[in-house]
Design brief:
mainly alpha; MetI-like fold; about 70% helix; cell membrane; BP-dependent_transpt_permease; transport; membrane
């Protein structure tokens, strides 16, 4: 009896949404990593004889294509796996690019004096005031739509958020006793930032990184939907939705499969980001 009660109590204490989100995120990452080996077909292989076949369970379904085929007869399951792989790759490296740029500029603003602070924060204000779609159009029109360019475009999407966060955190830490002690011992400003300050602002930066990763997945999907992302026939989740929008009335599965993957991926990462914020923020943890 006591064992059953303890098991029930443990089950109540488990944060099921976080565990489910973690399991989903791990599953999606594994599917993306193993896509070249588990995809049943070449994602770009066309077969007009099998075009617009519905998923298994519907009339005219072909058992070889579990999720059906698109307007060119390409296997949707294979394209979803490869599209998930590329979408996660772009979001990951875009997040890292924005993190590096924003952290460096935030440190410059906090430690470089009034002129450096005014210049960096002015640049941040300009960035936040410009419509990002317009910036993306200009960059892609000038530099093309290759994968490195897309990583740069995604990286500059949210660097200003990192810069403002790092600047605010470092300026709050500058007056603390251990920072004053390091300064009195002769440590330079940049040494204090790298050795003493950055480790203490890791928690909010990690939380913002996870949340921005989810935002970049949606942003990459939106750019690909508008035709500004990776060009056909290479698949990303957003480009698959964009290419299938003309067939939503007659073949809704073309949009439903990649669209559902976008929703699941974004939701899983957002839930994990919220959980990290609750765990790492002392003020929320003590409530």
């Amino acid at each position: 009896m006591s064992v059953a009660l303890s098991l029930r109590g443990a089950a109540r204490d488990i944060d099921w949404p976080v565990w489910i989100a973690g399991a989903l995120a791990l599953t999606l990452v594994l599917l993306a990593l193993l896509a070249p080996w588990i995809a049943p077909f070449d994602p770009d292989r066309q077969s007009l004889l099998t075009r617009l076949r519905p998923p298994i369970g519907f009339d005219r379904a072909d058992p070889r294509f579990l999720l059906g085929t698109d307007q060119l007869g390409r296997d949707l399951l294979s394209r979803c796996l490869h599209g998930l792989r590329l979408s996660l790759f772009l979001a990951l490296f875009g997040t890292v690019t924005g993190l590096v740029i924003g952290t460096l500029l935030g440190m410059v603003a906090a430690l470089g004096g009034r002129i450096a602070d005014a210049l960096v924060m002015g640049l941040v204000d300009v960035k936040l005031s410009l419509p990002f779609t317009l910036v993306a159009l200009v960059v892609i029109a000038v530099a093309g739509s290759s994968i490195p360019v897309l990583i740069l475009v995604l990286g500059i999407a949210y660097w200003a958020h990192f810069a403002r966060l790092v600047r605010a955190q470092i300026m709050a830490l500058r007056a603390l006793p251990y920072v004053e002690a390091a300064r009195s011992a002769g440590a330079s400003g940049w040494r204090m930032a790298v050795v003493h300050m950055l480790p203490n602002i890791a928690s909010p930066v990690v939380v913002m990184t996870t949340l921005n990763f989810s935002n970049l997945i949606l942003l990459e999907s939106a750019l690909s939907f508008l035709g500004l992302g990776v060009q056909p026939p290479t698949a990303t989740l957003g480009s698959m939705v964009g290419q299938g929008r003309d067939y939503m009335a007659s073949a809704p599965w073309i949009v439903a499969a990649p669209g559902l993957l976008i929703v699941i991926t974004s939701l899983a990462v957002m839930l994990l980001g919220d959980h990290l914020r609750d765990r790492l923020d002392v003020r929320l943890r003590d409530r």
